Amino acid sequence: MNLSGIIGYPVTPFSHDNKSVDLNKLGKVIDVLLKAKVDAIAALGSAGEAAYLSESEWKQVAEYTVKYVDGRIPVVIGVAQLTTEQAVNYAKYAYEIGADVIMLSPFSYYKLNEQEIYSHYESVSNSTPLPIMIYNNPSTCGVDMSPEFMLKMVDGIENATMIKESTGDIQRMHKIYKLSKGKVPFLNGCNHMALEALNAGASGWCTAAPCLIGDQPKQLFDAVKKGESEKAKTLFYKQYEFLEFIVSSGLAAAVKSGLALQGNEVGGPRKPLLPLNESAKNRLKGMLAELV
Amino acid sequence: MNLSGIIGYPVTPFSHDNKSVDLNKLGKVIDVLLKAKVDAIAALGSAGEAAYLSESEWKQVAEYTVKYVDGRIPVVIGVAQLTTEQAVNYAKYAYEIGADVIMLSPFSYYKLNEQEIYSHYESVSNSTPLPIMIYNNPSTCGVDMSPEFMLKMVDGIENATMIKESTGDIQRMHKIYKLSKGKVPFLNGCNHMALEALNAGASGWCTAAPCLIGDQPKQLFDAVKKGESEKAKTLFYKQYEFLEFIVSSGLAAAVKSGLALQGNEVGGPRKPLLPLNESAKNRLKGMLAELV
Amino acid sequence: MNLSGIIGYPVTPFSHDNKSVDLNKLGKVIDVLLKAKVDAIAALGSAGEAAYLSESEWKQVAEYTVKYVDGRIPVVIGVAQLTTEQAVNYAKYAYEIGADVIMLSPFSYYKLNEQEIYSHYESVSNSTPLPIMIYNNPSTCGVDMSPEFMLKMVDGIENATMIKESTGDIQRMHKIYKLSKGKVPFLNGCNHMALEALNAGASGWCTAAPCLIGDQPKQLFDAVKKGESEKAKTLFYKQYEFLEFIVSSGLAAAVKSGLALQGNEVGGPRKPLLPLNESAKNRLKGMLAELV
Amino acid sequence: MNLSGIIGYPVTPFSHDNKSVDLNKLGKVIDVLLKAKVDAIAALGSAGEAAYLSESEWKQVAEYTVKYVDGRIPVVIGVAQLTTEQAVNYAKYAYEIGADVIMLSPFSYYKLNEQEIYSHYESVSNSTPLPIMIYNNPSTCGVDMSPEFMLKMVDGIENATMIKESTGDIQRMHKIYKLSKGKVPFLNGCNHMALEALNAGASGWCTAAPCLIGDQPKQLFDAVKKGESEKAKTLFYKQYEFLEFIVSSGLAAAVKSGLALQGNEVGGPRKPLLPLNESAKNRLKGMLAELV
């Protein structure tokens, strides 16, 4: 199971009082992604506010997503728990409910050293047969993993088979490609770096953008893969400002505001996260008007 | 209630299988701190692995600490929850059990903007009458707060009355001092910057060092406050390598290893954190032999 | 005069005692570049050790280069003087001897503010009719210019017409492209970012690599421009390690060592710069054996 | 010859047209420093715009300063030339004219490696018997030297006997002190870090502040050395805003504006440097009104 293409990230809709997950609305967000021709769905990533869910909410979202997608495309479940014990617990649950891939990041309070990270990944790998996507995102997770170290984990840890790189440094991808002789699949996790990541050999692009702009990310992916470089450049620059905006404004807040603007009210993000303020909402409205 | 002097940070002892908190041993660690002449106890900070405890464990540690200290010195309770709802829940609990101060940091997965942080602090302040220490530690919490912004919170949020600065940048303290005309108390949270922080006007030093080196931090504090600058310099450089070591090795791992070396077995840190490796343990042993 | 394609950077050969420039050998280096099918020659850039030349040496190199190239392709002359007066003096000289473009960077001891940089560029622009390439390379020049600011200079300063971006941050190029609506030409100055820069719309690639690996940079440029993306990727990764090596080892030292390995002895770099040490020389030898 | 106390840095006055050095006015600036009770004079440092002087101007300033001071206090001459040959040339000149100490920094266009820096210092050391102050200021010189490396140079290079640290990171000073067991003298080169540097054991403070605020830096130095820590703190915070201002505004521009405000017209800085703008001048005026 290696992923390729567009990996779509749904947000997690909440009830009006912000106190519970609204699964019905989650289904509608998944419908939006499917219509946008994503090649896989990844629940409980950054966009899904996984860090802000209780254990039972997390499990509801995971289970609902797998059932709702129902095998039409692969389902990735994000695991970013602070303790190894809880990460193992969540990974086992993902396996039990029939998910296809675990996306595992070393979210941490302390800076972890490489021995600690390695051992964390190994424990999760030993607990389920699911393939693991190593997810490097220091700006959210507080821990940075070098290409060399992630490839060492791919080598030594049975189920660790692919890498999602979100530092925003294209050189990391060049290193992964060169050091693995092109053999370890890597995915782009930095929206506004999609063009160069795909040109550098990324097998996929992990993004919440299809929640709002349909199959435009998929069109960009296809153009690069077909060698239509001028078309790819045009498609990328068309989306560029939007892609940068949803990252810099906070994915959950931005995508939820955008969905509301498009008639899909899914509630605000969970506090301390706040919805976009009015001026940001207007900027987003303007961008969507041009894009969609 | 403004804190001054040495604020001692206990580690949180675990059972042998790492699965539960060992409160008896926590009492012994608190005894070590009291013997080291600390002026307050701060449970559930970074050294206390608060981020890795379940809710019930967290509450046990908080309650036990307050009861065990029993009014001899003030008790600070660290609150670093990911959601505002949970931070409020924990802060209320701290108040109910009789804690004296809440140390509140904006631990986060997403980068929070200032509006989100402000609102988070305000919610906690509105939920209890306890004084709040604003705690800035971007390397663990993933969020950096400027002196200007923290002073704005002191101004506008009723219970926010003091600041713990842990960036390791002495200029932040100079800014706090100048901008507040010396009126807002600030505490040092960066061990190997203690000498300059105290000379710059810090009213206290938050540290787990007294778990291992007795009242030497207190002696340093006293020397600075008495203007014995040559003595202060000597005391500081004596402790310097040790202070830097426990920070760079991870406070919980280092202090727990040190306690074991001194005959106080308190278990290892919780995974993904690992105990010090042998070479680090030997380095620590050497440093303690010279210091204690 | 807008440049496109491969802008080749010759090194500046010195005599054996390092005390004077060897113009004969410079001619041979230019021959190597012409044979490598470069589209322009840029003398007195970083690779040319311009910062380490006396005024008379600098003028010799500039004049010799223009005469030797003799109109076959455009000649760019790098100007990176510390004072505005000297930058104007050098720019005028470049014009007098018949150069085609001035590449101007704000080399500085102090951090310059934007007003100071603007005024520096304006003074040079007012002194000659030559087009100016704004060159941003904070790691050598100590000053960083944002895309917004450089575009402001293109707007307001008559002869400032194009930008060479060397920060290594692909987002800068995206910003230049978007903010100028694709109308301001920009060139890539970061060797190991060539693939993504060209895909992002760079009109050229400034590089000393053709001194050692022939027309492989030109082949990469052509492949991208023809939309042969798989071929471009293959060509890029073939050169990647080499491109990164010559940057991280210091361009002048690396290229001079490489030329000597290929039978073109051009002397060492000027002190404090030292030639590559033996292990680096051997690494380079191995890379060249695979590439050429 | 080890320096201690306040090392005063004169600016270099220019004629009205900015084209030549005004030595008479330089004498007046030196008088101001002597009246401010500095313990040594350091000409041709950052404040002295040494990087922007021609060779003959540089030599005039060096010679004039030594003659004018005439043995009343030691004279340090800053050497920050791009080539080793020129650094040796300048160092020899400093010796010939009777200077007491050379302050040597590895100003560079390329990032130099440690072997290159070591060899640069060694060449200068071999060329004169004068003691060398190793000067680390990455923000102007583009090269950063670790405490470990600088101490290695003190060990291995005959005349390298002391260190001026200007990174603004107090930990560097702690490292120098600890690693050298307090035996290698170090001086503070970061104005707004003076209090902690002196408390950390710095033997001196290199500063242009006495050009404008008299003996207040000297008073601060004395208070720290006498252990009057409350007085030292008060004196430091009184100067703090001013010290930070002259650094962030550019030393030459700020000090020259300040001298003009106090009736000592010394011309503007040399382009590309510009004089302070009106609002900055007004801020400086306000600060000087409070301080002097």
Task: Explain what the structure shows.
The structure is a homotetramer of 292-residue chains. Chain A is an alpha/beta fold and 292 residues long. The mean pLDDT of chain A is 97. In chain A, helix 1 (23-35) packs across helix 2 (55-69) and helix 12 (251-261) packs across helix 13 (278-291). The first copy, chain A, has a single domain (5-291), classed as TIM Barrel (Alpha-Beta Barrel), CATH 3.20.20.70. Chain A has helices at residues 23-35, 55-69, 84-96, 114-127, 138-141, 147-156, 170-179, 194-199, 210-213, 216-225, 229-248, 251-261, 278-291; strands spanning 5-8, 40-43, 75-79, 101-104, 132-136, 160-165, 186-188, 204-207. Chains A and B meet through helix 4 and helix 5 of A and helix 4 and helix 5 of B. Chains A, B, C, D: GO terms for molecular function: N-acetylneuraminate lyase activity.
Strand content of chain A: 5-15%
- Name the largest protein-protein interface in this structure: A-B, 37 and 37 residues
Which CATH-level-2 architecture of chain A?
Answer: Alpha-Beta Barrel
Number of helices of chain A: 13
Instruction: Pick out the low-confidence regions of chain A.
Output: none
Keywords, separated by commas or semicolons:
292 residues; Dihydrodipicolinate synthase family protein (chains A, B, C, D); homotetramer; alpha/beta; TIM Barrel; 13 helices; eight-stranded parallel barrel; Aldolase_TIM (chains A, B, C, D)
Present the secondary structure layout.
The structure is a homotetramer of 292-residue chains.
Chain A: E1 5-8, H1 23-35, E2 40-43, H2 55-69, E3 75-79, H3 84-96, E4 101-104, H4 114-127, E5 132-136, H5 138-141, H6 147-156, E6 160-165, H7 170-179, E7 186-188, H8 194-199, E8 204-207, H9 210-213, H10 216-225, H11 229-248, H12 251-261, H13 278-291
Parallel strand pairs in A: 1-2, 1-8, 2-3, 3-4, 4-5, 5-6, 6-7, 7-8
Helix pairs in contact in A: 1-2, 3-4, 10-11, 11-12, 11-13, 12-13
